[in-house]
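I'm curious: can you give me some protein's one-letter sequence along with its backbone structure tokens because I've never seen that pairing?
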Amino acid sequence: MVYGMVGMACLIIGYWVDANYTFDHGTWLIAAAMAPGIVVGLWSAITVELTTLPELVGAYNGFGGLAASLEGIGLYLDPNATSFSRGGQIIVSQTNPMLWVQAIGLCLSIIIGSMTFTGSLVAVLKLHGTISSKPRIVPYRWIVTILMWIAMIVLSVFAFSGGQTWNDRDVGLTCIILLTVVAAVYGIIAVMAIGGGESSKMAYVVHAMFCS
């Protein structure tokens, strides 16, 4: 955890001092974006009881997944995502191989982020006792799982094929939204099937499945 904190601090500072990324009002915008997280983090660290720490970790993990998913959707909607830019100015367009790598990363960010968000919320509710900790498995679970993963792959491909490109607000955006929904539902189904043991064990399993 300490190494992660140090690494993230170095990353933020590196971007903060680089004028290529903090052009115009970027410096204070970074500070304003970090402020709510700092306040919530300090508040939760002081007030949350040790016995509810697994729930807190699950909630933080879930909202981290939500952030990753929203970032992927935002990148898809960004018309400048196909180019490299510095200081608000476009320098050069990305090549097709670069765009495909970026597209794969975008879809994975949405898939993993969405299932992390909903799966972590279910885990938190189970740990808190809001919903039963007993495992609930959908009928024909493995068939449903395979079909959902096929659907996610197909939707990911369709979001960037058949004439669709970045910032496509028609078929492409529809595929991205459906991809988000399917991944979110899969997160619920996957974690609802976990349970029946100690809450700490369940929290560990969920964290291992959806840590992003």
